[in-house]
Amino acid sequence: MSNRAHRVWQDHLQWSRRFFLGLGAAGVAALRNGSASLAADDANSPVRDARLKEAVEKLERWLTPAAEFRDVSRGSPIPHTLDAGQLAEAGLTRETWKLQVLPDPEHPAKLRRPMSLEAGTALDFAGLLELGQTQAVRFPKVMTCLNIGCPLGMGVWEGVPLRSVIWQTKPRENLRRVIYWGFHNNKPEQKFQSSLPVDRVLEDLHGLPPVILAYKLNGDWLSPQRGGPVRMVVPEAYGFKSIKWLNTILLSNLFHANDTYAQGNNDVDSTLKTFAATLNAPTDVAAGTPLAITGYAQVGTSGLTKVQVWLQPANEEWPTEDQYFLKSPWRDAAILPLAETLAPETRDLLKSAAGFTADGEPQAWPQPLTKVHWAILWDGLPPGKYTLRCRTVDPQGHAQPMPRPFQKSGHAAIEEVTVTVRE
């Protein structure tokens, strides 16, 4: 990241700590129709209102069970659909997995000890776990596709920092980029690779967790469906950087990215954007009935300070020059504390994870690179059709879809939902 990005990250962490400590561990900046209310344990909080409380109780859990992640896997057949024998033959079981770490044949870095299948020095799963005994890390991260407007899942990922394996190859010089891919049915046309600058691998700048070779998700072994037995996980990046079924790493002197995803007209250096969307909103209600509206927000690298909501009469024209609705009468929603949507049995997963205390409490909230939930109770409306919109605001005052409104660098469009109010 640039120096500016560093300042943004630090400002977000400082603001988040002040916000969280000011409310207390169970606090929530609960807001109704734009006016501040008290914390969630106060009887006057809108979260205590039966209509809003019922909607909040229906929210998805903060951590997504592994089996409930959305799947956008590639391949024909998709690797995780192979039968048990085929998985073993492909090296996609913990007993048969091997990782090669080699010099890039076209732009070779100089290594004293490459890890290769041919020489019998490839890293196996037992060797990876041995490193994990002293070096394993875990952190929560939302997994998101660059071009899909909703997270695929939110989990606690555990593994060994990639740099720990790279140093075992004893690199000498000419190392500028790390290129990697996973199993692809031995079909070159299905190969899907990604890459990182070596400084991101060797050093964790701006408070970011390390890039890891992940083998656990939410405390369980990584399944083939989630990219196991081992996948790459890059904390601040979109999913195409977190390659599944990892089996090959090249250490390269190449000076630029050469990700497969670039071929689809995508910005392969984008980091996670901050944006919000609704999970549930009444779309057909009687006049005068309050609307319990809930949603989630992805906390990207720019951070998050507010989620805002606006209901506009559908027949109301808006100035075309204000295409991002910057002058609209937005109202602040409540950003819910972690305790509202964290399943109690998953608290142990967060103990001493990156960004969390030994008791599993977040050191900052909203937690960067994850998601949060929000809620608002909107007063009843006269009959008619309305357009519901929601947006985020980051610590720099940038409102969604700014500061990066372009599709190539990640989905962040302002969502629109039609609400019909009957007489």
Structure characterization notes:
The protein is an alpha+beta fold and 423 residues long. The chain folds into two domains: 3-48 and 272-422, Immunoglobulin-like, CATH 2.60.40; 66-264, Sulfite Oxidase, Chain A, domain 2 (Alpha-Beta Complex), CATH 3.90.420. It is 14% helix and 27% strand. The chain has six helices and 23 strands. It has helices at residues 3-23, 50-57, 84-89, 125-135, 162-168, 198-202; strands spanning 31-32, 35-36, 98-103, 110-111, 123-124, 137-143, 153-161, 171-173, 177-182, 193-197, 212-217, 220-221, 231-233, 246-252, 275-280, 284-286, 291-298, 306-313, 331-332, 334-335, 371-378, 384-393, 416-422. The strands form six sheets. It has a five-stranded mixed sheet with strand order 5-3-14-9-10. β1 (31-32) and β2 (35-36) form a beta hairpin. The longest helix has 21 residues, at 3-23. Residues 1-44 have low confidence and may be disordered.
Mean of residue pLDDT? 89
What is the C-alpha radius of gyration, as a whole number of Å? 23 Å
CATH topology of the largest domain: Sulfite Oxidase, Chain A, domain 2
SS-derived structural category: alpha+beta
Just give the CATH class of the largest domain.
Alpha Beta
Number of domains: 2
Please state the second-level CATH architecture of the largest domain: Alpha-Beta Complex
Q: What is the helix/strand order? A: HEEHHEEEHEEHEEEHEEEEEEEEEEEEE
- Cα distance spanning the termini: 53 Å
The low-confidence runs, each spanning 5 or more residues with pLDDT under 50, are 1-44
Q: What is the overall silhouette?
A: elongated
| CATH level 4 superfamily of the largest domain | Oxidoreductase, molybdopterin-binding domain
Can you count the beta strands? 23
